[in-house]
Amino acid sequence: MSGSSVSADGGAAAIRFTGVHKWYGSFHVLRNITLVVEPGERIVVCGPSGSGKSTLIRCVNRLEKHQRGSIVVDGVELTDDIKRIDEVRREVGMVFQNFNLFPHLTILENCTLAPIWVRKMPKHVAEELATRLLTRVKILDQAHKYPSQLSGGQQQRAAIARALCMTPKIMLFDEPTSSLDPEMVKEVLDTMTALAQEGMTMIVVTHEMGFARQVADRIVFMDMGEIVEVNAPLPFFDHPQHERTKLFLSQILH
Amino acid sequence: MSLDSLTYVREAPEPAEAPPMLSRGGLAWVHTNLFSSIGSSLVTIGCVALVAYMLPQLVVWATTHAIWSASDGAACRQYQDGACWAFVIAKWDYLRFGSYPVAERWRVDVVEAVGALLIVWLLWTNAPRRAWGALLLFVVYPILALILLRGSSLFGLPIVDTLLWGGIFVSLLTAVVGIVFSLPLGVLLALGRRSPLPVVRMASVLFIEFVRGVPFITILFMANNLLPVFLPEAWAPDRLLRPLAGIVLFSAAYMAEEVRGGLQSLGKGQYEAAKALGLNYPRMMALIILPQALTLVIPGIVNNFVGLFMDTTLISVVGVTDFLEAMNNAIKDPVWAGPTIMVTGYVFAGIFYFCFCYGMTRYSAHVERILAKGRK
């Protein structure tokens, strides 16, 4: 891992934000974001609500559009060109706070839909792949049920499997445990930890500081649309540098 | 648990018991729904009495007192306390085919039979190979129907001008054409209305708002009189095609608003999940958004279909003989003229329209139940 967040060395970065700005109307939600994510790196983004963390990762697959600066994902720069956007989206998986499974399809169909229609995979190959990934997230027995028949934790694991079925190079997690009942948080975090151990490039927006400490290579702390501090977990939690980081940590770690 | 202690630990589980007798079974249902209070009991008794008074008279009028066979109106004029079904039976061929030449009516029979078969194949939700059924119904069948109904010198079938078409088959034809074309057109208009492209959006809004702001009869007159003016002579659409185009455009505008309601009730998350998986716009719409949006608005869509079926009776104002117009003509026949003829004719027409519309609503309820299995 090549050190500081502002380094601009080599072309092999998984994601490279350079001077990214974004506004919602006149509200300046991302301010001069510069960050390089190396392949295989696990980044946890944290910060108070409204700090722009979700917006940041949603810019990676162009669910949100940045207005200034550049974002290069796996060597492809994001512009209005729909072909490039689709190219990036094929390689970047995303897991949402509210799962966003497709309620009219079974779990298996949720998983095979994109491989079949986007990757042009034959149906039986896609189903084998989905079966393998559903086994990995431990919900193969739910494959033929509809999302509404599953618990929140199972739905979120299904959503992870669905994203993995596209064999993405990068996975984005947007507060994946925030809408789960407390007893289901662990099963989802365990799944994510296992994924991290296999070397997936991950950016995780979360409030789960235990997960951050255990899994992250680096923690990015954001506040008011800007990156305030970036550090490895141990120094980040034990010796925060910036006043706002200290304040934030004192509020969430009781 | 005892109330005199402040702490408590359960020692044995509380068993699950059956509910008390009064809260279940037929008797309990009657009690809570029909006779829960004095007012409700009076309403129940009143309604039952009314039905008991009216229903037997209606049944007797339609069956035992009715005239079932006669060669002209003499018998019906003599016995006036029953329906004159003999009239409907005698006029049945005219009611079905209008002035379609007698020797060629087998062609209509074939088209109707094949159409009914294909529609049942498609509507039967567990039928095998429904994709083939759809292909046959939407591609092969219209060509077959056109050749058979209109005639073709290539196949040695005499041409039958649409001026001669009439009766039930024209009503059904209008309804089927309206239903088959207005839904896809409505979906396109709804998508157009939500398009990010301003020109497409404006055009869709203009069309929808214009059509919804004008009575159907006006649309029919415009389709009938304006289309031939705008189009070159050789392209001038057929006399029956004009009201068909009118009914499709009219119904599509209402369909579009129904579909838009469904599209708006879907959360942003479904779009985002589809995009994040790399689905492009057409696939996102066809695979994720429309299946959900259309399922949500099935009752509204079927409501529009029922309305469309009723509105087919209005095409007679531009000179097309639909079923109701054929009935009007039949009633005027002096051979059958009599006091019971008109009532009989319109009761029969009412039953005809009711059967089709009720069938549609029942079927839609069935489909809703099937589609609801995934969500709660």
Strand content of chain A: 15-25%
The radius of gyration over CA of chain A amounts to: 18 Å
| Widest β-sheet, arrangement of strands of chain B | 1-2
Radius of gyration computed on alpha carbons of chain B? 28 Å
> Cα distance, first to last residue of chain A?
31 Å
Number of domains of chain B: 2
Helix content of chain B: 55-70%
Would you mind describing this structure in some detail?
The complex is a heterodimer of chains A (254) and B (376). Chain A is α/β, with parallel strands linked by helices and 254 residues long. Chain A has helices at 53-60, 82-91, 107-117, 123-136, 152-164, 185-197, 209-215, 233-238, 243-252; strands spanning 15-24, 27-37, 42-46, 68-73, 76-77, 92-95, 170-174, 201-205, 218-223, 226-231. Chain A is built from 9 helices and 10 strands. In chain A, the strands form 2 sheets. A 6-stranded mixed sheet of chain A has the order 6-7-8-3-9-10, with helices on both faces. Chain A has a 4-stranded antiparallel sheet with strand order 2-1-4-5, with helices on one face. In chain A, strand 1 (15-24) and strand 2 form a beta hairpin. In chain A, helix 3 (107-117) runs parallel beside helix 5, helix 4 packs across helix 5 (152-164) and helix 5 (152-164) packs parallel to helix 6. Residues 1-9 of chain A have low confidence and may be disordered. With 376 residues, chain B is an all-alpha fold. Chain B folds into 2 domains: 25-64, no CATH class; 91-375, MetI-like (MetI-like fold). Chain B has 15 helices and 2 strands. Chain B has helices at 25-34, 38-62, 74-78, 85-97, 105-123, 130-150, 168-193, 198-212, 216-230, 241-264, 268-276, 281-296, 298-311, 323-331, 339-371, and strands at residues 166-167, 321-322. Chain B has a two-stranded parallel sheet with strand order 1-2. The radius of gyration of chain B is 28 Å and the shape is globular. The chains are: A alpha/beta (254), B mainly alpha (376). Chain A binds chain B through residues 61, 63, 82, 86, 89-90, 92-94, 96, 98, 100-106, 113-114, 117-118, 146-148, 162-163, 166, and chain B through 267, 269-270, 272-280, 283, 287-288, 291-292, 295, 371, 373-376.
